[in-house]
Amino acid sequence: MAPDLPTVIAIDGPSASGKGTIAVAVARHLGFHYLDSGALYRIVGLVGSERGANLDDDREISHITLNLKVKFEGDRVFVDGREVSDPIRGEAAGAAASRVAALPGVRSALMALQRSFRQPPGLVADGRDMGSVVFPDARLKIYLTATADERARRRHKQLIDKGSGASMATLLQDIRDRDFRDSTRAVAPLLKCIDAIEIDTTGTPVDVVVAQVLQLYQKAQQKTQ
Ligand code: C5P
C-alpha cells in the first residue's frame, strides 16, 4: 500500500452474506468511513428503470451514471437531491443493479466516486470487487459467505421487519440468479481474491464475525509495523 493513502478493509461476498451489517459495525468500531458500493449500483439500476432506459445498454446507462449526483448522509442516500434510501433496498432495484453492474462503462464510471471514500483515518468498503479491483492494495481483504438458504432466510427476515413480504422460494431463486450473474459476468466478477480471508457466516452471530474481522485487522496491522 502506498504509505500516504488511508488504510482500507475490503469486505466482499455474495448477496445477503452479511457484508453490510459487518462492515458498518467494523467501521463504527474503528471510527472509519464506510462505503456501501452496492448502493451505487442500486441507484443506477433504480434511476435507469425509472427513466425507462435499456438496462443492458452500456452507453445509455454509463451516461446516466456519469451525470448522477449521489450523496450519503449516515445511512440515508440521496440522488440528485431526492432521498432514495428505501426504494434502492427493494428487490427490483437489486435485480436492476445486478444487470447494470455487468456493464464495463458503468463500472468505470463509478470508480472515482468509490475511491473518493478513501479518507483518513480509514475506510471499510463492502461489495463484490472491493479487494480485487477498486482497492487492490487494501490492508485486509475479507470474503464473507453463507449458504444460499441462510441468505434467503436473512433477506426474508429483513423484508418482514420492514412490513413487506416475499416467498422464501422466490427469494432463494432471486439470490441464486444474482449469484450466477455476479460471478459469471466478464468484468469484475464476484470472486474470492487469493489474498482474501474467507469467513462463512452461516449460523454465526454478527458480533462474533465482527470480533473475528477486528482481530484479523489487528494482525494485519502488526504485520506491516
Ligand atoms: O450488495 P448489494 O446486494 O446491495 O449489491 C447490488 C448489486 O450490485 C449486486 O448484485 C451486484 O450485481 C452489484 N454490485 C457489484 N459490485 C459491487 C457492489 C455491488 O457488481 N462492488
Give a description of the structure.
- The protein is an alpha/beta fold and 225 residues long.
- The chain has a single domain, classed as P-loop containing nucleotide triphosphate hydrolases (Rossmann fold).
- The strands form 2 sheets. It has a 5-stranded parallel beta sheet. Strands 3-4-5 form a 3-stranded antiparallel beta sheet, with helices on one face.
- The longest helix has 19 residues.
- The mean pLDDT is 93.
- Bound molecules: cytidine-5'-monophosphate.
- The site of cytidine-5'-monophosphate has 14 residues, from α2, α4 and α9.
Mean pLDDT: 93
**Distance between the ends:** 13 Å
- Give the percentage of residues in beta strands: 15-25%
* Strand-pairing-aware structural class: alpha/beta
Name the helicity range. 40-55%
Assigned CATH superfamily? P-loop containing nucleotide triphosphate hydrolases
Give the tags:
225 residues, alpha/beta, Rossmann fold, 5-stranded parallel beta sheet, 10 helices, 49% helix, globular, binds cytidine-5'-monophosphate
Task: Break the fold down into its secondary structure elements and pairings.
Blueprint: E1 7-12, H1 19-30, E2 33-36, H2 37-50, H3 58-66, E3 70-73, E4 76-79, E5 82-83, H4 91-100, H5 104-109, H6 111-115, E6 122-127, H7 130-134, E7 140-145, H8 148-161, H9 168-184, E8 197-200, H10 206-224
The chain binds cytidine-5'-monophosphate.
Cytidine-5'-monophosphate (C5P) is lined by residues 15, 37-38, 41-42, 94, 97-98, 101, 127-129, 178, 182.
